[in-house]
Write a structure and sequence with these properties.
The complex is a heterodimer of chains A (about 120) and B (about 110). The radius of gyration of chain A is 13 Å and the shape is globular. In chain A, about 0% of the residues lie in helices and about 50% in strands. Chain A starts with a strand and ends with a strand. Chain A is mainly beta. Chain B has about 110 residues and is an all-beta fold. At the A-B interface, strand 5 and strand 10 of A face strand 3, strand 7 and strand 8 of B.
Chain lengths: ~120, ~110
């Protein structure tokens, strides 16, 4: 069974940093690009970042570029999101998501989602 | 402000059909066939319902269908059922921002 499990969320002060992880299982991880999507409390979905299957190419939402670094370790089947200079508006549930097509650069339709990890930025 | 525009809410009675619109621009929906639709129940992760405008993933009911005309995509749910009550989000590939979502539509089954 295909499964994604996020971890690393928590309470962090404004200006702080956090690294999220997403452990994948049940599929050939390196064959898929992967994405992070977030959802602020009571708000809609927001695409955050994606990374190619081999990790060489990364993509970021314009509003977040410069504060985030997406990476992956294919030997550990794990996706990461390093978040720096966190702000109150970064408070959200962060989901990792797998696309429905095994293509290193395709991440436009996501058919498997984790349960999410909650990031709260507050003093 | 979301990049794609959806109505905040729609409603329908059991057995009826409803359509949710998703309006973008010529830089996203109008120029690419990478439109997806997601269903999200409260406290749950989103579920892919439609991809590449009109394709249904395995396991998704054929009561769900998608289409596109110009810069607007649509999700139609026929034979409305109580369990369809949820939030629905559209998304599209866009050359400038990669993936954008709509603001979401709350479907109420009366």
């Amino acid at each position: 069974e295909v499964h994604l499990l996020e971890s690393g969320g928590g309470l962090v002060q404004p200006g702080g940093s956090l690294r999220l992880s997403c452990a994948a299982s049940g599929f050939t991880f390196s064959n898929y690009a992967m994405s992070w999507v977030r959802q602020a409390p009571g708000k809609g979905l927001e695409w955050v970042s994606a990374i190619s299957g081999n990790g060489a190419t990364t993509y970021y939402a314009d509003s977040l570029k410069g504060r985030l670094t997406i990476s992956r370790d294919n030997s550990k089947n794990t996706l990461y999101l390093q978040m720096n200079s966190l702000r109150a508006e970064d408070t959200a549930v962060y989901y990792c998501a797998k696309p429905n097509r095994a293509n290193s650069y395709y991440f436009y339709a996501m058919d498997v989602w984790g349960q999410g990890t909650t990031v709260t930025v507050s003093s | 402000q979301s990049a794609l525009t959806q109505p905040a809410s729609v409603s329908g009675s059991p057995g009826q059909s409803i359509t949710i619109s998703c309006t973008g621009t010529s830089s996203d929906i109008g120029d690419y066939n990478y439109v997806s639709w997601y269903e999200q129940h409260p406290g749950k992760a989103p579920k892919l319902m439609i991809y590449e405008v009109s394709n249904r993933p395995s396991g998704v009911s054929n009561r769900f269908s998608g289409s596109k005309s110009g810069n607007t995509a649509s999700l139609t749910i026929s034979g409305l059922q109580a369990e369809d009550e949820a939030d629905y989000y559209c998304s599209s590939y866009t050359s400038s921002r990669f993936v954008v979502f709509g603001g979401g539509t709350r479907l109420t089954v009366l």
